[in-house]
């Protein structure tokens, strides 16, 4: 039995969580910063790192108190060490190293994107059959993975331009809706007519496992503002049209994600599918995957967006194998595990 503290600060959430045995979440504290970034409609790195500095100690204290334990009860300290914004990552990594040193605890560095996949294991009984296909779809990432187990994870496809969550946020901005745009468009889409406007589905090559969302985003922009060189629209979409655009846009995103998962499953003879990241909260995607012919695992909604429980959870796997980092561990802005090299 191991009790692990996880720390997350890769982007704009400062989070800490205590998890027992990799699956039982004893506390899950997230200080979100979105009011600070909302007026810029995106994350401003300098603002994010300052907010992490202010939030990290209260968040850590709340996570420890909430779990009913003390720092000395912990078996290991884990931190999301890659990938992310350097100024943000450094706050979490420094806090984790300081705690590991002060309390003489083993230190574990975790890949944030892999942890999004692991989040399906938290607080729900799940028996993932490997090899599995994993989709991480969030504001910063849209990529497919082959998982042979929790520590053998290879990227097999990724976006060549925007992440799907980023497209949600940008389309919401075009429609004058709030930030983050994903949940707002998702709610609107539920009441819209997805067939009224047909937006493009970019599938790339027939076998491709890569994604592209910039064409879809531009198609929505032209719809809302008018095509350059042609007479421009003079009135913005009304409420009904906005709702139908949301539904049409969501249908295009879901179709593409589903098609890429289907291809990956077929090419890799996978036995199950794991979906994580902020967009895994999407109700259209969940409804579409309910009809998929293999077992499909989504995280509980609290663990879809950035959180530290997934960091502590995945760290438990490293703990069991005795894979610890030294105090020289660095923050890394890019994912260390690069794309699988496909033999030609
Ligand atoms: O995983 P996350 O918290 O941060 C990153 O690692 O990027 O994901 C945030 C993203 C945002 O782009 C947000 O708009 C999107 O997830 N998102 C959603 C939904 N909830 C959050 N997108 C579509 N539908 C949702 N229900
Ligand atoms: Zn994330």
3D structure, described in words:
The chain has 344 residues and is α/β, with parallel strands linked by helices. It folds into two domains: 3-119 and 303-321, ATPase, nucleotide binding domain (Nucleotidyltransferase, domain 5, 2-Layer Sandwich), CATH 3.30.420.40; 129-299, Nucleotidyltransferase, domain 5. It is 39% helix and 18% strand. It contains ten helices and ten strands. The chain has helices spanning 34-38, 45-66, 86-102, 112-118, 164-174, 181-189, 214-225, 239-268, 283-289, 309-321; strands spanning 3-8, 13-20, 24-32, 76-82, 107-111, 132-137, 142-149, 152-158, 272-276, 296-297. It has a five-stranded mixed beta sheet with strand order 3-2-1-4-5, sandwiched between helices. Strands 8-7-6-9-10 form a five-stranded mixed beta sheet, with helices on both faces. Helix 4 crosses helix 10 and helix 5 crosses helix 6. The longest helix is centred in the C-terminal third of the chain and has 30 residues, at 239-268. The mean pLDDT is 94. The protein binds 5'-O-[(R)-(carboxyoxy)(hydroxy)phosphoryl]adenosine and zinc ion (ZN). Zinc ion (ZN) binds next to helix 4.
